[in-house]
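Review form for a predicted model. The reviewer records the input and the model, then writes brief findings.
Reviewer: anonymous (R2)
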Amino acid sequence: MQDFTRTTDETEIDRRTFVAQTGAATGVLALAGCLSGDDDEEDGDDPDAENGDENGSGEDYGDGRPTIEVEDPPNAVYLPTHREAMRMLDPIEAGDMMLGPMLSYPHDFWTIAGSGEDAVERESPDSGRGVHMMFTLWDQQTGTVLPVDDGVQIRVYDGDEQVGSPVSPWSMISQEMGFHFGDNVTLPEDGTYTVEVTIPPVSVRKTGDLVDRLDERVSATFEFEYDDEFRHEVIGGVQYLDEAEWGDRGALEPMDHGDHGEHGGHDGHDDHAHEDEHDDHEHGDHDSHDDGDHEHDHGDEHDHDSENGHNGHDDHAHVPYSALPRIDEYDGAILATADDESGADGVPTDHDSLPRSDDAAILAALFEDGSADAERLADDGEGDVTAGQYLLVSPRTPYNRVPLADAALSVTVERDDDTIVGPDAALAETLDSEYGIHYGLVIDDTQIEPGDSVTVTIDSPPQVARHQGYDTAFLEMPPIEFTVPEQ
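Model under review:
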């Protein structure tokens, strides 16, 4: 299999190579997107066509590439058509947070409002002139990637003049970038632009080292150059996968964190086996792999050279990826999956053996009353800490362990014919300094025991926007039934 993590003369795909590999129909789309953004215009009608030739590339990078669709993609996570190229800017301080700006060409993404296929809306850029602006936000003290609430605003300035109206970006997930926020921003012309990002307080329930912190509105400012060199970098650097792989079950590796992706990641090796890894969505029979070698820490230990497709912009070494902890990093009792034999006595033993709901991997753990984790997770700084057990439910993407935020979950616990918890007790979305984004409940008026049935219901799927490859998954999520194992 071709290695798409490198940019060389053999793997970088120009328009001619793209036409040859993907056929005339998709080649015309690429030409239209690269030349003018308008199918009705000829090359000579594009005022910037000459600029591309002046760079000696024979390409015009005035407009962004179109999104090439995958024909009949699965209702699951799948390999997209390409690996994006982007410019990584220096991370900047915003109060107790750090903000990592990333810029690419304007492109399509998908927003979610509700559940099911009808809840998906494709967002296309108003113009090819501009950027797709993305940000990873994290806590300086703990390195925890932070969810973004409503109220973030992006203002773009050309000198002292504001360009357009303020932009309210979307919370998004991407196979390469993980959890982030962003939007397409139209720019009128080449030049140096100043961006001001205003970030509201992090309003989600917080525990651990995040309690009583990140409660102030902050802002950060940076500049970037929009010119033909930038367009050459982010449009010319796009790496298309072999067309035969488009829509295969699997995911691209996290951006420049090749040693940390989940199984099935597209790392340039022969990963075609991932197509059959998820035949059983509900019970996750994936015990042929062991994720013990995949570290949770996506820190700065990697060497990012010019072959990574980012043309020497290696500041992204300082931007964390939002992968959740591995299953063996949870100290609580991992709940067994009903009627599942993927782990010891039905208890999942690695990421691949977690049960699936519309291709989301669902981890459920119970922390006993009096344990350090239960006490930390029960303490959100709001009033007296209520002692008790703590039930943690952690939905994540099936390959890269990206958290699925902004969902609504509830739980019912039954013993014989009696309801012990619930029915349908709401789980609170929570951000913990050790376990990241999850949904939790303090059990303080009863005791969950081995043998109890725990049914987790996804009342509303994650309402985060998605890049290509996540747009058909996590939409209609059936409940998962767990059993509390014997200790």
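Findings: Helices lie at 15-22, 24-35, 49-54, 228-236, 372-378.
Further findings: Residues 1-62, 257-317 have pLDDT under 50 and may be disordered.
Recommendation: see findings above.
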